[in-house]
């Protein structure tokens, strides 16, 4: 069956844990093991800003970076523990839901995404900074 981005987003939102920016911020502050991933590419992060202390891994590279069977130079060591808590964020939320579902499908046990993305993050009063990478 062919799916649109909207349908893929709806499926991901139904199958993953969406949290508010406030919940995400509280989890990040309470647990230093939480990996907070920004799924936008550098150009979009430069245009929109990014949350502080976020790890940039573009949506297109997420599955590869989280794979435990590819060459070590392609993996991200921070994504090798399937029990590590992960929170994803994007511009407005849909891509972060799809990213969360990708990680969940890969065996991650504690994955959430920020509903409303960085727009909701900024609306909640949390700063966005200029990316350095």
Task: Please tell me about this protein's structure.
This protein has 133 residues and is an alpha/beta fold. It has helices at residues 5-15, 21-30, 42-48, 59-66, 94-105, 117-123; strands at residues 17-19, 35-38, 50-51, 55-56, 86-89, 111-114, 128-129. The strands form two sheets. It has a five-stranded parallel β-sheet. Helix 5 links the parallel strand 5 and strand 6. Helix 1 crosses helix 5 (94-105) and helix 4 packs parallel to helix 5. The longest helix is centred in the last third of the chain and has 12 residues, at 94-105. The chain is globular and about 40 Å long.
Itemize the secondary structure elements and their pairings.
Layout: H1 5-15, E1 17-19, H2 21-30, E2 35-38, H3 42-48, E3 50-51, E4 55-56, H4 59-66, E5 86-89, H5 94-105, E6 111-114, H6 117-123, E7 128-129
Parallel strand pairs: 1-6, 2-4, 2-5, 5-6
Antiparallel strand pairs: 3-7
Helix pairs in contact: 1-5, 4-5
| Structural class based on helices, strands and sheet pairing | alpha/beta
Radius of gyration: 14 Å
| Beta strand count | 7
**Strand order, sheet with most strands:** 1-6-5-2-4
Q: What percent of residues adopt helix (DSSP H or I)?
A: 40-55%
Low-pLDDT stretches are none
Instruction: Count helical runs.
Output: 6
- Morphology: globular
Main beta sheet: strand number and arrangement? Answer: 5 strands, parallel
């Amino acid at each position: 069956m062919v799916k649109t981005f909207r349908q893929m987003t709806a499926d991901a939102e139904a199958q993953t844990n969406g949290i508010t920016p406030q919940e995400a911020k509280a989890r990040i502050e309470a647990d230093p093991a939480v990996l907070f991933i920004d799924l936008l590419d550098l150009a979009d992060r430069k245009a929109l800003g990014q949350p502080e202390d976020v790890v940039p891994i573009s949506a297109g590279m997420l599955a590869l970076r989280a794979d435990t069977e590819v060459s070590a130079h392609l993996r991200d060591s921070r994504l090798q523990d399937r029990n590590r808590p992960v929170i994803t964020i994007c511009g407005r939320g849909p891509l972060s839901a799809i990213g969360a579902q990708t990680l969940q499908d890969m065996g991650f046990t504690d994955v959430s995404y920020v509903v409303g993305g960085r727009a909701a993050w900024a609306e909640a009063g949390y700063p966005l900074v200029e990316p350095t990478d």
